[in-house]
């Protein structure tokens, strides 16, 4: 559930994916054929000029990819040199993929393998995905779930100066034009709206409680593994980059369905959780609350090397947000993809003020997962910060459905708890203003 660096396509073994090998040298031979040796052939034809320009573009492309791989390799080397990280790079899939169609994602064997702080390994991840999910590559889309009579789950496209993103919107059957809440759901790496909707069961909750759900989609053109670019400085600011696109999608849904602009929320998993944290920091006037599952705080990284460090729990913790937004956090203390300390850092960044009432409770989910829940409430008793530490959980949506990827059905129902927390904030945005 993390972003990989871009790589040189000429060095990929594409045969396992049913694709022919990429050969950039073919452009060179095409250019040679376009050049003659007789009189008058010193002047290039239009086709030869185009081929030459393509060669130049491909050369620049390969240099860029080589630089990215070098940066990634250097980051990996730096992580391996740090105490406690060497020798644990092989196990990179935090949750074990299903071995058969319709199977559940399961927690790894806790008796061995790596521990929190393990550096992700590109080749091992690709190999594991190819072996276990041959038909579920980054571009694969799960069939959309059945929609109840009277409800809709439709595709949209939002475009503005920062770019364009597709998204899906769920409209419950109980919608009659009333001003409903909106929850923006941000998927993790390799996921898409249909997969994330299936895994979180958020559409079922929207049908039961009558609210709208929007699922922005990160395309491979923006990130090879469909991750939101949470670590890029240009995607951590207001009115620019991905935050502006996601905020624009939220506003579009509000406008199209006459939704309640004071009850707009965002939630996400992993890279999507980090993106939700960025929305809280950059658009506190739009989002009345956020939910961050297995994510990172806004500003945890500014580039690829610091992203790897942050994912391993290293580096310094970002400071608090200038304007607090009510936040609910879920993070497994066995997460080997995004170190559990990041859940603490997300909560620390979201603390609205000192002197809040704090309640700590412990329990076990119906599926047998132990958890610790810490709730901080304001003077009126309204919860403004809630943190769930999932004991033994890995990098997956707690209480999710095996119909989606990266879910752990054993855990507490993260979707239901987030919805409860969000709807408890009604009127809070007016109080903040």
From TrEMBL:
One of its GO terms (cellular component) is extracellular region. This is Acetylxylan esterase A. It comes from Methylobacterium phyllosphaerae. Its EC number is 3.1.1.75. Residues 28-50, 101-120, 396-416 are annotated as: Disordered. NCBIfam families: esterase_phb (TIGR01840). Gene3D superfamilies: alpha/beta hydrolase. InterPro entries: AB_hydrolase_fold (IPR029058), Esterase_phb (IPR010126), Plant_Biomass_Hydrol_Est (IPR050955). Keywords: Hydrolase, Signal.
